[in-house]
Recover the amino acids of this structure.
């Protein structure tokens, strides 16, 4: 069991290097197992599979979270994407691409989320 | 205007090489402009942008359509992904990854769709 | 109580004139009250309000059901729209408009549904 | 008619005992009938049916609102659940269970909502 | 190309007369083409089609955005609807009608959004 | 690891007693780990937790799947609910309750799914 947890943490130490403890702290007094599930299921079982690299996985997660309209988790994964060497331009392109599949409202909301993260990290303006 | 249309068709000739005319035929007697919009907007304006390659774009579209539960379009894009050299294993991995973001029901429905396409194309069993 | 039911039925006799009994028959051995709720709540309380006419209401319902991806109910309301003098072209236009708000996958699925209804009623090709 | 309204209010006096008037006040100058619909349809017609008790109904509503991502209404129904003797642990368990059906993003957002309600009511930490 | 852009702007000058530049400013340093897409695709290609008038189009968009739960865009289109002579009562009626198709939670959230816009514009209380 | 799998299987042997192998067979040549994830995550980690009984869990899952519009999984869980002693009437009541939170279209689709299962099992008409 410990093994599964450690395996998941090894990915999170890369993708979420700046806020790795937040996921546990936020639920420690209400649902401590929820944080554990996130480490042990997606990070341990899925993100460690070698058939797809972390960069492609994070871009696909950004596509999914934009589609879902899940803004706080999208922001966390935009940071994760930057941490595995996605460029800001790649992130913007994938969000923009979603407009064909989900329309403009959720695309706009996701782009605003990206803008907030990029502003915090002083990555704007993009110069592509 | 013709230019925009031709530009979009140049992508569709790659991604949808086997069924490129279906998109026009299906709506020709009810909404012919809808087919044109699809060529001129996503394919011409988005898929031709160089910052992200077609392979990554198709995997992200698969992520989005799995999230959305849009099965007929997912099947079309699984074919598109194969046409731009995504492997069946990569497609399966991205669908499986979605389980973390959308849960198992829509993931299962998407995997069944992938299975149907792969069976038609005699690509099963996957041996990775 | 009877009064509320009769009031809702007076709208359904217009919008669903060809299949008004289906709504009751389908659930009579499992959930008879569900059919009654539909008559007494949306049809009696909402569709009878005079501030918006039935034609505009049906087009807005088509917009909502296209957005929701609820195809069987969409088909029923496309028939309802025709019954309150919406033209096939107006119905097509509203479905096409949705592409901006929900993207192409659900728009395509809705347009296919419209095509099926219009074919049954021998309304194709549209000549606008 | 009055009867239907009173019947719905008899449930709301239990589930929403602390904020029963908010539902009317918020819409009184824009859509007063919307508050009435809520009393007369779900509370009067559904929550009064005896085949399922209020506690189970509120847990199922929490499951639905978590799935829907409707946070303000979820918070209101978490209070409603506490008012019909659901324990905080039961509420947390149902939200956590949803992760299998909707994935982690919406589950996390719902759990944060539960945490806010439980903090206001001084119910944390949970000690089960 | 310029032509398509100008054509879209001619609609936006009516529907978004007070905030027409916001759409470009917000994304100018991150995704300038996204603003252009919105002008050139929905506003130029769809809203200019004559088969349905702008008033009906805006009411249908309100129906869609209420269904989608896209609150910021809904607020923008409520303003757009007022700018093409929809009455506040018509807007309220369409939002209320959605309760039948999407349930009360998203209907309530949309009505609160409408209330905020109407309060800003000093249009409350509605007196119909 | 085996332990986690066996723990999940002990629940599935109750809820899915008639079709327990389907979940593995369907994906064995394309994504065998997906079946394992379902056993090891929701069934092993969640359904075995004692704070809520299996009957309440299945009703809440029915609420979620109705909300999500995931019909094949809903049908499977309606069978699961019957296997842990939910009555057909309780299942119908929870689906009907959802109309308040998701509107009639998805409620109707879920009720039709329930009707199909109950017909197969010769449980209709319901007599409560």
């Amino acid at each position: 069991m410990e093994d599964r947890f450690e395996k998941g943490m090894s990915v999170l130490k890369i993708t979420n290097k700046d806020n790795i403890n937040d996921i546990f702290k936020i639920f420690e007094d209400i649902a401590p197992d929820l944080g554990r599930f996130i480490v042990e299921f997606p990070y341990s079982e899925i993100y460690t599979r070698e058939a797809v690299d972390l960069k492609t996985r994070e871009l696909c997660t950004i596509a999914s979270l934009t589609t879902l309209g899940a803004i706080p988790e999208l922001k966390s994964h935009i940071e994760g994407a930057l941490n595995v060497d996605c460029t800001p331009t790649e992130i913007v392109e994938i969000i923009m691409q979603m407009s064909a599949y989900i329309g403009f409202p959720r695309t706009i909301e996701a782009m605003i989320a990206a803008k907030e993260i990029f502003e915090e990290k002083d990555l704007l303006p993009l110069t592509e």
Remarks:
- Residues 104-120 of chain F form the longest helix (17 residues).
- Residues 45 and 67 of chain F are 23 Å apart (CA to CA).
- The helical segments of chain F are 2-15, 22-25, 32-46, 54-68, 71-83, 88-97, 99-102, 104-120.
